[in-house]
Each structure stands twice: as structure tokens, then as C-alpha cells.
Amino acid sequence: HAHVEYFRGVANPIGIKVGPSMKPEELVPLIQALWADPKATPGKIVLITRLGASKVHSMLPPLIRAVKASGLQPVWTCDPMHGNTIKAATHGLKTRNFDDIVSELRQTIEIHDAMGTRLGGVHFELTGENVTECTGVPQGLKESDLPRRYTTYCCPRLNYAQAME
Prior knowledge:
Elements: H1 2-8, E1 14-18, H2 24-34, E2 45-49, H3 56-70, E3 75-78, E4 85-87, E5 94-97, H4 98-115, E6 119-122, E7 134-135, H5 160-164
Helix pairs in contact: 2-3, 3-4
């Protein structure tokens, strides 16, 4: 846990990636270790949920309940990209389905609203280029379309039309 100890000394805001392996009983102690004085430094901790469209409904509410019960008020953000990354069966390229990205974001907003918390931000990976890295609407891209203009060296991005949708 040397990285946690290192980040305890950082004065800037700290983003914590909260994925499917994060347990509610682990999240609060982690926040407390990194946030010595929440009243004096509001906004220092940013929780970046990245649970995936199929898991957000079951996994996000217990996380929110645990944080609310602790009295902490971090900034909640949603990264609907990383939890929805898959490898295309036909050629092994990493991709994301547009509908899954939108679904995770919508579910996250609804859950926060129902639980009395606020989603304070969203993380998207996108480009203004006409790439073929994510499948789905509005162009109806399929896995077989990915190699046409797959230019990322890292993570699949929404193209211009998908980002505007």
C-alpha cells in the first residue's frame, strides 16, 4: 500500500478508479486514508465509477450507501467507457458498444438521483475523427467494421457521430 501512503501527501484532488473489484467496505477506509480533512478540502476526492452496464445496477448502490453512511461527500463521476471494453471475437481488437456506454451512464444517473447523491462528472474517450473503434449507433457499426479505421494505440474512442449522439 505504498502508493496510498504516497498519495496521502498530495494536496491536489485525487481520482480513485472504482471498478467491479472494489468492495464497499474497502472504499471508505481508502477515502479516509487519502482525505485527512474533508471539511477543509471539499472536492479533493473524486470517485470514478467504471462498473460496466451489466453490473452498475447491482454494484453502485452499495458503494453509495457505504460512502453516505461515513458522512463523506466525494465528487462522484462516471467512466462508462472502461467497464464496457471487450475484445472483438473476430479479430481481437478492443472495442466498446455504444448502447452499453449510454446504458451505464443512464443507470448511474438514475441511481444517484434515487439515492440522493449527485453525479458530478463524466469521462468519455472520443475523437473528432471518423474512426471505427466502438460499435453501435448512430452508424450501426459492427465488429466487422472495426478494422476499417481503427487507429487507437490504447483505448477505443467514440467517433464524431457517436460523440454527438
